[in-house]
Amino acid sequence: MRTAQAIGRAAARRNPPLPPLLFFTDPERTPDIEAAARRLPRGSAIVYRNFGAPDAEARARSLLAIARRRGLLLLIGADAGLAAKVEADGVHLPERLAHRARRLKRPGWIVTAAAHSPLAARRGLAAGADAVVVSAIFSSSSPSAGPPIGPLRLARIVRAAGGPVYALGGINDKTARRLMPAGLVGLAAVEALRT
After folding, report:
1. Cα–Cα distance measured from residue 178 to residue 24, given in angstroms and rounded to the nearest whole number
2. What does the alpha-carbon distance between residue 46 and residue 63 come to, in Å, rounded to a whole number?
3. Whole-number Å distance between alpha carbons of 195 and 156
4. Which of 44, 48, 119, 150 could form a disulfide with 40 if both were Cys (CB 3.0 to 4.6 A apart)?
5. E strand or H helix at 93, and its extent?
């Protein structure tokens, strides 16, 4: 968390303010989302990915209450309708939906998009995303993670992207420090933030 905050402070001098740390939820890998959210440092964001859960709205409202009390932001994954309904702070789009970023923007919202290649990062930002989340940087236990790209390739993607980039995938206390020189706006993690 301290590394994400240090990266965020450095990035704030170059970019509009964005959260330095994104906590991506996952029903399998972060079963106690609320407990993890309560541990996040002020200024971080929760990216609630509900994957079609029947209690998605109730869970989103619960996370929003935690976010408001703790000075966090709440983004809803892939569901702008739910984000608007619960009055979240924005939406996170999978790479396949990144082209919709500009159309989904609302006043005060943050829109982020997943990117798994340099081209996807450029396209997401060109489509209006406030930032892209590039993955997988390091080896990850996510079933959807591809081969890790590593810090050097990530740094090249950041330079070529033309806008704010977060790193996701295998981020933990040890690996985060290796990303300090990459020029990121912040870090994103799943399992490293669970309780």
Report:
1. 20
2. 8
3. 33
4. 44
5. strand 90-93
Cis peptide before 78 (omega within 30 of 0): no
Whole-number percent of the chain with pLDDT over 90: 79
Task: Give CA–CA dist 107/192, Å, rounded.
Answer: 31
Q: Tell me the two tokens of residue 110.
A: 């943050």
pLDDT recorded at residue 13: 57
The whole-angstrom separation of Cα 131 and Cα 124 is 8
**Contact call for residues 134 and 164 (beta carbons, < 8 A):** no
How many CB atoms sit inside 10 A of residue 56's CB?
18
Reported confidence tier of residue 11, pLDDT bands at 50, 70, 90: low
Phi, psi of 118 (to 5 degrees): -60, -40
Are the CB atoms for 101 and 132 separated by under 8 Å? no
The CA distance from 167 to 182, in Å, is 10
What is the spatial distance between Cα 117 and Cα 50, in angstroms, rounded to a whole number?
24
Task: Give the per-residue pLDDT at 194.
Answer: 59
Continuous segment of H or E residues that includes residue 131: strand 131-135
Supply the CATH classification number for the domain 2-193.
Answer: 3.20.20.70
C-alpha distance across the termini of the chain, in Å: 14
